[in-house]
Amino acid sequence: EAQVTQNPRYLITVTGKKLTVxxxxxxxxxxxxxxxxxxxxxxxxxxxSMNVEVTDKGDVPEGYKVSxxxxxxxxxxxxxxSPNQTSLYFCASSPSGGSDTQYFGPxxxxxxx
Amino acid sequence: AQSVTQLDSHVSVSEGTPVLxxxxxxxxxxxxxxxxxxxxxxxxxxxxxxxxxxxxxxxINGFEAEFKKSETSFHLTKPSAHMSDAAEYFCVVSAYxxxxxxxxxxxxxxxxxxxx
Lengths: 113, 116
Hints:
The complex is a heterodimer of chains A (113) and B (116). Helix content of chain A is 0%, strand content 50%. In chain A, a hairpin with a 3-residue loop joins strand 4 and strand 5. By secondary structure, chain A is mostly beta strands. Chain B has no helices and 12 strands. Helix content of chain B is 0%, strand content 60%. Chain B is globular, with a radius of gyration of 14 Å. In chain B, the strands form 3 sheets. In chain B, strands 2, 5, 6, 10, 11 and 12 form a 6-stranded mixed beta sheet that branches. Chain B is mainly β. At the A-B interface, strand 4 and strand 5 of A face strand 5, strand 6, strand 10 and strand 11 of B.
């Protein structure tokens, strides 16, 4: 089944404790991206990647890192999480960005205490 | 730079009446435009997209949207609302951001309530 998977789905952590949220797609898509969703703000793009080893900042990259060492994986790294990073996070992929349909993962709800 | 404005944060309609969700955009390049739907506690699903072909785009579940370049609008409509349409709807613009990259920008969302 074609899908985007994210792990973990739920995470409660404390300020400053490094964490990684994994994202994997099995559709051989070139384009992958991370979003955060906050009430009243919609989805805001954190980082995106057009291909392996190519990443770009989105609208809200501060406090986040990403890497794209393999086409199928695009982990989101929070080196020192803070409470303002409490949010619902979505990973998405598409064949090549642009006019392509985005396929979204199920979401990761992160709480930073 | 690009932006998306969804003109209503909340729309309430009675079952069987028309739905209109409004979206305006700005973009330096010719954009692709999308509407996605998010049902409660679910991920996002594509409703329809515009990619410079026909200006009237038909999507799933009876939704359609019209691209109006002169008005920079991409409003979503449905002739008759169903209870299952209650969800949050996002208008999205995708435009070229240079060096072979595309950036997506989401509107803040419109929550649609359907009254029985």
